[in-house]
Every structure is written in structure tokens, then in C-alpha cells.
Amino acid sequence: MTLHKGASPSDRKHSGHPVNPFYGEADPVAGMETAPPRHTLPDGPISPHTAYQFVHDELMLDGNSRLNLATFVTTWMEPQAGVLMADCRDKNMIDKDEYPRTAELEKRCVAMLADLWHAPDPAAAVGCSTTGSSEACMLAGMALKRRWMQSNKDRYPGQARPNLVMGANVQVCWEKFCNFWEVEARMVPMEGDRFHLDAASAAALCDENTIGVVAILGSTFDGSYEPVAEICAALDEVHRQHGWDIPVHVDGASGAMIAPFLDPELVWDFRLPRVASINTSGHKYGLVYPGVGWALWRDTEALPEELVFRVNYLGGDMPTFALNFSRPGAQVAAQYYTFLRLGRAGFRAVQQATRDVARSMAERIGALDDFRLLTQGDQLPVFAFTTADHVTAFDVFDVSRRMKERGWLIPAYTFPENREDLSVLRVVCRNGFSLDLADLFLADLESLLPELRDQPGPMERPEGVATAFHH
Fold it and tell me: Which of 88, 91, 190, 233 has its CA 20 to 30 A from that of 375?
């Protein structure tokens, strides 16, 4: 979670300002005369209408989530889904005895995903819901480490230090996992036009202490798939040569809900025996409001039993594998609703429409003389682009800042180590971002270009702005 500091003296001075008389419940000359303090508890209660209005007015200053082309997170659902989530907002997901039908919906979602991802025996696959892919990745990493520890009892925790191999493009949660659970993070840097992990580089970093390799199905940097099947084949060769049986975890935060519908011929999932576990974000291309994620293991052997806690809680014996305990059940209900509502054909139609928008936008931006595409939006509905080599009057950060003036949130960031010279813009297309909105985006971008071209050079920017963008 984000860490926050306490209020500064200047912040505390703002309490006591006069407010609009109509904030009162009925009588404009009665009720609230000054605003409540912002950083200390008020002395007494205020009316629900007034409290709502204060919070509502401040939140108006947030960006419009539908115009946020930075986030992968779902920003639109059907009204019926919103009603269903409201019906379930008071249900605690952990209270499975009290809410057995909510627990049953979670179980059905796991079974559906196991079938979608070609588990050898969907009934034998194990999985759980999480608060998002970050928690799911932590759980998957814990399982990888524990399996390795069990196989290396004679060496660990002595001289053997576990390591995890991944590309430098991984989401920051994997760096957190390695930090928190004392695992060496072996990062394959970007090189030239290779912006993600490749099979040869992954295999080259493995040794007898490698607990696993993380393959990303849909890099957040540019939307590209990593070659999961090639990585598994390279690890098969490592096994034959050295005897190291190294499992693969597929971080399918986004792609695991795209590839099954749009790229069914792509082999990346449990069809590959070396894939031990997969995660996805229900709140990304699973089309559910935040936050819900899913972690699945191909069978019970892939998830050590000693990691599963059996808790006698509120009257029942409950197996649980999670970093959190209490959390809302509404998102799980919404995920089941979405699976039930769309089915395979519906998901295919929604994801195809999103990819069509991404490819159309990429093609039109690529046709502009000012920009150069890195990806085309033909894997994840995501593409990255940078300024053309001859452009010297402005950079991607100027474009991002000027588009924000029009209401569009489009991230500009530099790539990681070895390609820190490359700064890009990234567009994430989601359900609800239509061709009409894409037309408006392109019209605003094209209208800004004459002004940007007339600049004497890129505007100065704080160094902290030009950092890698991780979501």
C-alpha cells in the first residue's frame, strides 16, 4: 500500500474555511458554516448529505478514468454488475461458512480458469482468488521457493541462496517478492530491440539454486508476449544437461485473459508440462472492477501442502492460502457474473473489439511522421511508441503533458537498464474505449503537433518524471 506522511502545518490551517450555505441539509442559514478539519477528526458529526458533498467535490479533481490510457484496470462494467457488487459489499470473502454461496462462486471461477488454461485435470488444479495479480505473484513465488527448499534440504539454508530468473520488464511486484522473501532477483536486461525475456538469456542465468523462471504473457512496457513455449523448451534442455528441473510461472496478469480467446493456437499455459502456475488479474482484461486476481497451480504437487493453512474460523475448518485475510466478496461475485454473462464467445468479441481499436490507433499514429511504433497492439491491446529520430523540438514527455491538458492520461516513461536511452508513450485500450473515443484522442494529438513542432526544444522536466512505469 502507499505510504503517507502526516499533515503539514499549512495543510492543517485550511480547516475552518467558510463553505457554501447550501451544503446545509435544508436551511441555508443553518448547519455547517465552516469546513471540517482535513487531518484531524472533527469534534462532532455532520449530516450524511454534507459529508458526501465534501468528499464528492474533492474527488471531482481526479482524472476521468475512462480517458486514462495508462491503466490496465477495468474502468467500466454494466449497471447490473454494479448492483450485484453493491449487494455483496458487506460480505467478507474469508467467512466461507457464513457466505457459502460466495465461496462456491470462487470455486467455480477457479474451475473455469483451470479449464480455460488447459490444466491436465481441471478437477485436480488448485487455485484461489486474491486482491490482484501482485498478491497472486507473491503466492506463486512462495510456492516456487518452498518447492525448491524441499528439494534442497541438504543445502538450504546453508550455502545455497535461491534465485529467480526474469526479464527486467517484470512488474514491480516480482522485485518486491525477491526483496521480502530473500530471493536473488536475476534480471535479464533489455538489449537493442529486444524488450523482454528470451529463451537463451533465461536459460543462461539458471543454476542449481534457481527456484523458477517468470515468463510474462503481456509486458506492461509495450504489450508484447514473452515466448513461453521457447523458454520451457530451453529449460527442458537445461534439465537434460544439468539435471536442474526448473519450473515456470506465467505472469498472465493481462495476457491470460486475452490469449485464450484471440490467440488460441498460442501454446503458453498448462499444456506445457513445465508451467507450474499461472496468475491473472480479474480486474484487468478479466473485465471486473478492482480488485480481484487469481492464482492457479496445475496440481497439488505444484503447491506444497505446508503453505496451506487450515483455520478453524467462525465455526468451520477452512483451508486458506493468502497474504490477506478479510477482503470483500463483491469482486468475486462480479467475476463469476462476467464469466456467466459473456462466455467464450462474449469474451472473444469484447477482447477482439479492444484489439481492433488498439491496432487501428497504432496504425494511425505510426502513419504520422513524428512518431515511431515499437509495438502494434496485436498481442495485448496495448502499444508503445516514441518520437521519430528526426524530431528534436519535443519529446514524449511533452506529448504526455500536453495531452493531459485535454483530459487524456497517457504515460511517458523510460525503459529499464540498458535501454534507459529510450523514452516512450504507451496506450492501453480497454473495454469501453471505443473507436469514437480513439478518434477524439487522435484528433487532439494531431491538433497539438503544430504547436509541439514549433517549440525550440523539449521542455525541461523533473528527473523523477522520467522513470519506468510499472502498471
Answer: 233
pTM: 0.90
Whole-number Cα distances in Å, 425 to 205, 320, 344, 365, 397 = 31, 41, 32, 11, 8
Query: What does each C-alpha distance from 194 to 128, 201, 219, 249, 268 come to in angstroms?
Result: 34, 11, 12, 21, 19
Buried residues in 37-73 as b, exposed as e (16+ CB within 10 A): eeeeeeeeebeeebeebbeeeeeeeeeeeebbbbbbb
Distance CA 156, CA 209 (A): 9
3-state secondary structure 91-143: CECCCCCCCHHHHHHHHHHHHHHHHHCCCCCCCCCEEEEECCHHHHHHHHHHH
Burial category of 391 from C-beta neighbours within 10 Å (exposed 0-12, middle 13-18, buried 19 and up): middle
- Count the neighbouring beta carbons within 10 Å of the beta carbon of residue 32: 19
pLDDT tens-digit profile of 116-127?
999 999 988 899
End-to-end alpha-carbon separation of the chain, Å? Answer: 14
Q: What is the pLDDT of residues 251-273, one digit of tens each?
A: 999 999 999 999 999 999 999 99
The vertex-268 CA angle with 180 and 103, nearest 5°, equals: 65
> In angstroms, rounded to a whole number, what is the distance separating the alpha carbons of residues 366 and 370?
8
- d(C-alpha 468, C-alpha 424), whole Å: 10
CA dihedral 234, 238, 240, 242 (to 10 degrees): 180
- 312 vs 262, residue with greater confidence: 262
